[in-house]
Amino acid sequence: MEGSPSQRLTDSLSQELINPHRATQPWSYHVPAPPRIVVPPPLFAGEDVTEGRLKTFPSALYSGVDLEVLPVLKKINYEEFFAATKWNEWKYSWRRQAQKILPFLYLGPLASARDKAFLSQEGITLLLAVRNTTSAQAKYLDGTKIASELGIMSCSIDVPGNHQLQAACSQAVRTINAHIGTVYHQNTQMNSVDNQVTTGDGGSSSEMAKVLVYCESGNDRSAIVVVAYLLTMFDLTSVQAMQLVSTQRFCANFDDAAKTTLVNCMEILTAKRDVLTACINQPVTSWNGGVDGQGGMVSKGSKRALDDGDDVEMEDAGAFRDTDEATLVPRRGLAPFQELTRPQ
């Protein structure tokens, strides 16, 4: 039951005496955090996961990528490969094994990198370890010994922490592509017949390299690197790439920090592609130089005299001054709190 008007006035005056100020903007007592990135659950059988996905970009839109690997990737029939995958079957014990994300790209834990029978059966040609620098100093997750015994290659990507993975992903992508291109060209030169890369049920010819990306569990650093490879080489969003990896390896773990890292990686790649697209579509600008006595084009010096820019600098200074004054006017009314007026 509500109190009398005099009682409500008394309560209001008491509240003003306790807190004589009022917030002018909505306040939140929560710690600032970026919005949550939701990744849908893995797709199940009967759904076409390759619809609109796993399409390579034109070669002109790749920055820092070995273009010789593109013909190899385009020879793979991804639809047949994913059609043979059983999306709705997953056993808890499979987390100790490596899963095939793409016909040439595997993701797994350290145990799979030490399984000689698995490596020989699948035809793995490169062991790529993603490890912490502390583990590297202790020679942990080192696949050199296993690789030398099997006659394959091994390398590692060492980072101080997961926050540095964003910068290391480009190095991992270059390593994977360089190995795929090298193995493909070596095998095609050795074979007199031009064999086609066979995929579909998961098998492939000896021409196709196979890379196993692994870390301690196969669910953390190595999963981020594999997603970054998908983002770099295929027309996928960060959510689609994480969903695709989770579909193949259900135990892959993408926490909020990993999702943010991959979203940032996707934004950087998108910006690079936008710049390359703008450079391709940019019309030819008019020549700003001169012509020598023989009809040749001579570029104008990039440096200018001190007097050349005085007028421009004065105009720019006035423009900046006007802009500052215009933006400072509305700021005067943005006080965080406002003092309450008390009745006399």
What report would you give on this structure?
It is a single chain. By secondary structure, the chain is an alpha/beta fold. Helices cover 42% and strands 10% of the residues. The chain has 12 helices and 9 strands. The chain has helices spanning 5-18, 70-74, 78-83, 110-113, 116-122, 133-137, 144-150, 165-190, 221-233, 238-248, 256-281, 310-328, and strands at 21-23, 99-102, 105-108, 126-132, 153-159, 211-214, 290-291, 297-298, 337-339. The strands form 3 sheets. Strands 2-3-6-4-5 form a 5-stranded mixed β-sheet, sandwiched between helices. A hairpin with a 2-residue loop joins β2 (99-102) and β3 (105-108). α9 crosses α10 and α9 packs parallel to α11 (256-281). The longest helix has 26 residues, at 165-190. The protein is elongated. Residues 44-52, 197-205 and 290-297 have low confidence and may be disordered.
Report the principal-axis shape: elongated
Helix/strand order, N-terminal first:
HEHHEEHHEHHEHEHHHEEHE
Strand line-up in the sheet with most strands: 2-3-6-4-5
Mean pLDDT: 77
Question: Runs with pLDDT <50, length 5+?
Answer: 44-52, 197-205, 290-297
Strands, count: 9
Our Rg estimate from Cα atoms comes to 30 Å
Number of helices: 12
N/C terminus separation: 29 Å
* Largest sheet features: 5 strands, mixed
> Structural class, judged by helices and strands?
alpha/beta
As a percent range, the share of strand residues is 5-15%
What's the helical proportion of residues? 40-55%
SSE topology:
Elements: H1 5-18, E1 21-23, H2 70-74, H3 78-83, E2 99-102, E3 105-108, H4 110-113, H5 116-122, E4 126-132, H6 133-137, H7 144-150, E5 153-159, H8 165-190, E6 211-214, H9 221-233, H10 238-248, H11 256-281, E7 290-291, E8 297-298, H12 310-328, E9 337-339
Parallel strand pairs: 3-6, 4-5, 4-6
Antiparallel strand pairs: 1-9, 2-3, 7-8
Helix pairs in contact: 8-9, 9-10, 9-11
